[in-house]
User: Fold this.
Amino acid sequence: MINRYKHYKTLIFIVLLNVFSSILHYVHNVVYFDHYPEPDWLSPQLVDAFWFVLTPIGIYSLIVAVKSQMSKGHWWLYLYALMGLLSLLHYNVETDNIMTITMHSLIWFQAICAFWLIGYVTMYFKNKSKHQEH
Assistant:
C-alpha cells in the first residue's frame, strides 16, 4: 500500500510538472508568437486552443491511471506525453527567426518532462511485470 501511494505521488508530480511546463511554453509561445518558428497555417489562437485540448487529456490520463491502477491510464499518459513532445517541432520549421535561450529552454523543459513521463510509465510496467514473474 505504501509503495502504491509513493508511486501515485510520483506520477501526480510528473504529470503536474508536465502541465506546468506546458503552461510556461504555451504562454510564452502565444505572447511571442511572431518570434517563434511556426508553420504559416498556425496562429496564436490555434496554439492556445491546442493547450486547452492537451491539458484536459493530461488530467484525464492521471485520473484514469490512478483509478485503474495504471492498467487503462498508461495509454492516455503516453498520448499526453507525446502531445508534449510536439513542442520539438519548432526545430523542424524553416524560418529566419532566431530562437532565444528562453525559447530553447521552455521547449526543452516541456520535452524533458514529457520524456520523463514516458520513461516513468514504461519503467512502472517493466517493474510490474518483473514482480508478477516472481
Notes: The CA atoms of residues 85 and 112 lie 8 Å apart. The first helix runs from residue 2 to 31.
